[in-house]
């Protein structure tokens, strides 16, 4: 329950992702110049190496390379259409990519032998539009995958779900249906649903973008708590307050490329690229 | 118009010697209902599978689904009845063809299979539309939780899609029920065939078809009522 669960950030890490080297494959800590900042203490949980993706002729991702260490919270931001949602969906193979490799906890997702459903069951995902299953009660939303994927019994799954509902402050709503909850409540249930699978990493794809402003806070609170407990998180969001509060690193994307991959302080203090500077000045203006 | 109205005709003995004309119509009604129900079981099963095929990522699966739908919905039902009943036994190996022709109740089995396959193409379109009407994120959410494609369909996509398409599916069921009348052309003694027989035996054409019309309407209204009950029963709270 403390922030000590997070590995300290390596002071010598190189924040700017290089676009040519294949990172994350050598022994950790031996190559200080190697791109993504792999500290001596945190093993990489996700490595993204040279990912390119096309829709027909249109290239949506260009040679994206980065890594996320165990316990790290990485915020991905950038203008709409910059490919950040596409990139995060590549991490659990919801979107196919044509070039490069992504490794999650040692498993290559572009490897044909990989059991993708099994891998995905260990990677929690939270969507912009919640995507709770409307025909199932909150309890059943939480237990469906536990039972069908993890093979847990009904009682065990429901108990686990209820415990997580309590954690996100919604225990009293267990019997309701998604349509009877507010957007913020639905998103908290969606987070609980992902956590019920005991994920090793959580992916958030613009979790607060579809919410009314007064509901953003309750969802961010849950996420902040999660981050402080040491959960490895990759978060696509425009919530710079959240980034400042709990992120270790910020990745800035534009036109399908990772333009900036920096420690939080560095990103907010002195962004290197002009595009990041413009983006920041626009969204921090108000 | 010189017409001898005789509403008591229904209680007169029919020349078939199996009871009154009313009995004759009711036996027709029974075959109509039996044919419709059996055909619907086939239509719903095949239609669901074919509808799902058309929404799978696999191009091959889509092609199979498309081929099925376009084959069975683009040939008139009447022609399909004739193909199944008159043509199929001739193109099969001889022993199979003979077996088919000697089946007792051959018109019934043929009507059930023909109508089932025909209606399946229409059900498939509804199922496809229902699945495609769901937000894309639903499939992603199921997938992201580790559900397999089959599980995602079984537990997430289909339960929602069926709810969406319940009203048009009701229409398909009504069509299916009314289409059983086409089977009179291959000798199925269903309601319309019985009304026609009654007219030919008794010359009371208006009474015979008035009765048939009313029976069809009542049965279909009953179906609509039941469908409404089902719709309310499976309605999702908060929607």
Automatic annotation (TrEMBL), chain A:
<feature type="domain" description="ABC transporter">
    <location>
        <begin position="46"/>
        <end position="280"/>
    </location>
</feature>
<keyword id="KW-0029">Amino-acid transport</keyword>
<dbReference type="GO" id="GO:0016887">
    <property type="term" value="F:ATP hydrolysis activity"/>
</dbReference>
<dbReference type="Pfam" id="PF00005">
    <property type="entry name" value="ABC_tran"/>
</dbReference>
<dbReference type="GO" id="GO:0015424">
    <property type="term" value="F:ABC-type amino acid transporter activity"/>
</dbReference>
<keyword id="KW-1003">Cell membrane</keyword>
<protein>
    <submittedName>
        <fullName>Amino acid ABC transporter ATP-binding protein</fullName>
    </submittedName>
</protein>
<keyword id="KW-0067">ATP-binding</keyword>
<dbReference type="InterPro" id="IPR050086">
    <property type="entry name" value="MetN_ABC_transporter-like"/>
</dbReference>
<dbReference type="GO" id="GO:0005886">
    <property type="term" value="C:plasma membrane"/>
</dbReference>
<dbReference type="InterPro" id="IPR003593">
    <property type="entry name" value="AAA+_ATPase"/>
</dbReference>
<dbReference type="InterPro" id="IPR027417">
    <property type="entry name" value="P-loop_NTPase"/>
</dbReference>
<dbReference type="InterPro" id="IPR017871">
    <property type="entry name" value="ABC_transporter-like_CS"/>
</dbReference>
<dbReference type="InterPro" id="IPR003439">
    <property type="entry name" value="ABC_transporter-like_ATP-bd"/>
</dbReference>
<keyword id="KW-0547">Nucleotide-binding</keyword>
<feature type="region of interest" description="Disordered">
    <location>
        <begin position="1"/>
        <end position="36"/>
    </location>
</feature>
<keyword id="KW-0813">Transport</keyword>
<dbReference type="GO" id="GO:0005524">
    <property type="term" value="F:ATP binding"/>
</dbReference>
<comment type="similarity">
    <text>Belongs to the ABC transporter superfamily.</text>
</comment>
<keyword id="KW-0472">Membrane</keyword>
<dbReference type="InterPro" id="IPR030679">
    <property type="entry name" value="ABC_ATPase_HisP-typ"/>
</dbReference>
Automatic annotation (TrEMBL), chain B:
<feature type="transmembrane region" description="Helical">
    <location>
        <begin position="65"/>
        <end position="86"/>
    </location>
</feature>
<keyword id="KW-0813">Transport</keyword>
<dbReference type="GO" id="GO:0022857">
    <property type="term" value="F:transmembrane transporter activity"/>
</dbReference>
<dbReference type="InterPro" id="IPR043429">
    <property type="entry name" value="ArtM/GltK/GlnP/TcyL/YhdX-like"/>
</dbReference>
<protein>
    <submittedName>
        <fullName>Glutamate ABC transporter permease</fullName>
    </submittedName>
</protein>
<dbReference type="InterPro" id="IPR000515">
    <property type="entry name" value="MetI-like"/>
</dbReference>
<dbReference type="GO" id="GO:0043190">
    <property type="term" value="C:ATP-binding cassette (ABC) transporter complex"/>
</dbReference>
<keyword id="KW-1133">Transmembrane helix</keyword>
<comment type="similarity">
    <text>Belongs to the binding-protein-dependent transport system permease family. HisMQ subfamily.</text>
</comment>
<keyword id="KW-0472">Membrane</keyword>
<keyword id="KW-1003">Cell membrane</keyword>
<dbReference type="Pfam" id="PF00528">
    <property type="entry name" value="BPD_transp_1"/>
</dbReference>
<dbReference type="InterPro" id="IPR010065">
    <property type="entry name" value="AA_ABC_transptr_permease_3TM"/>
</dbReference>
<dbReference type="GO" id="GO:0006865">
    <property type="term" value="P:amino acid transport"/>
</dbReference>
<feature type="domain" description="ABC transmembrane type-1">
    <location>
        <begin position="29"/>
        <end position="227"/>
    </location>
</feature>
<feature type="transmembrane region" description="Helical">
    <location>
        <begin position="29"/>
        <end position="53"/>
    </location>
</feature>
<dbReference type="InterPro" id="IPR035906">
    <property type="entry name" value="MetI-like_sf"/>
</dbReference>
<feature type="transmembrane region" description="Helical">
    <location>
        <begin position="205"/>
        <end position="230"/>
    </location>
</feature>
<keyword id="KW-0812">Transmembrane</keyword>
